[in-house]
Specification:
Number of helices: 4
Structural class: alpha+beta
Strand content: 15-25%
Helix content: 25-40%
Radius of gyration: 26 Å
Order of helices and strands: EEEHHHHEE
Number of domains: 3
Number of strands: 5
Length: 140
């Protein structure tokens, strides 16, 4: 936090103006306010991180690629998942082939996985979100 005028590192706190701390340089007596660095990410970065997550990338990998904290990515995904509307279907599904999808979902270390079930006869789809459960069998 060098003085913008003389580049000195010797400063003291001065008054607060509009809720922001001002400083006074001890060398040239110049008063200045430190410009805040904005850490707000653009909506494009948020959208891209969610797309990358939905494509199967992990939080740490997304953070490394976009050069942001993996905790930030996790918070965005968690907030997004809590605001999602998940439609539910009341009727039973007669035939479902999920062996490969279930094996893949069980192999992932994520906290949630989703299954998209499509009834071709009635042209209805059902998205089911669930936590991975040990080796429970799926009833169809």
């Amino acid at each position: 936090m060098d003085c913008p005028k003389c580049k000195s590192r010797h400063y003291a706190k001065d008054v607060k103006a509009d809720g922001r701390q001002r400083y006074k340089c001890k060398g040239c007596h110049f008063r200045y306010t430190v410009i805040r660095k904005s850490d707000v990410k653009t909506p494009e970065i948020k959208r891209l991180s969610l797309e990358m997550y939905l494509e199967g990338l992990g939080f740490r990998r997304i953070g490394r690629i976009l050069q942001i904290s993996y905790g930030t990515v996790f918070a965005w995904v968690k907030k997004w998942s809590l605001t999602m509307f998940v439609p539910r279907r009341e009727g039973r599904v007669r035939k479902v082939e999920l062996e490969k999808l279930i094996a893949y979902a069980e192999s992932r270390k994520g906290t949630r996985y989703g299954l998209l079930l499509i009834d071709l006869k009635d042209n209805v789809s059902l998205l089911s979100l669930d936590k991975p459960a040990g080796r429970d069998k799926v009833q169809a």
